[in-house]
Amino acid sequence: MIIAGDLNAKHGAWNSRKNDQVGKTLNEYLSSRIDTTVAVPSTPTRYPTDINYSPDFLYIAIMKTGNIGYIIENLNDELFSDHTPILLVISISSAHTYPPKPQYITNWKLFEKEMENLSFPLPKMSSKIQISNVINHLSSQRSWKKGHSSQDRKNDLPNFIQNHIRKKRKLRAAWQRNRDPDIKKSLNKQTSLVRELLHLHMDNEWTWLMDSIDNNDEG
Questions:
Q1: What residues does the Endonuclease/exonuclease/phosphatase domain cover (predicted)?
Q2: Are 76 and 46 in contact, with CB atoms under 8 Å apart?
Q3: Higher pLDDT, 157 or 9
Q4: Which residues of 64-100 are buried (b: 16+ CB within 10 A; e: fewer)?
């Protein structure tokens, strides 16, 4: 089973800039499953035409298929709107995938201290509803404490790549306003360049990660 698209569910677990109630509910459900995979592109799926607003992740794929291989990417040059379509390729064999990097960094020592200081006297419970309410309250407290112990991860893309992305967003906004064929050509060229730079950057990060794991195993 696969559910994919804009589910109106934002959560930092799949790199959204903020959490909403639907995203919190969905993340709690997914966290309780061991047979469900969440696939997220490595780059945002919406780039607002207003450069004062930041890109965000809106499109995700939920797959209840166990351990599978998949590749998911943005098709940035296939659509003229500020929402980019995504391509999801699924394989029953092992596939090379890029796991999404969390947008938040958690200070686990601070989180542990916050949880130790949490005062939560257990009331008398005589029904499933009361037990469920207590569990939900404890879960919300845990989520709040974790959020209080976390901060936004800084964008670690090199400055020259960020500059090319800004240029692409400006070209996209200009194309949407004017529909000038020359601007469209420049946008296509810039989109291809950004895609190539991002792929090279991800390959380098992946290679570095694999090398670091190998070095740790040898130690």
A1: 1-86
A2: no
A3: 9
A4: eeeeeebebbbebbeeeebebebeeebeeeeeebbeb
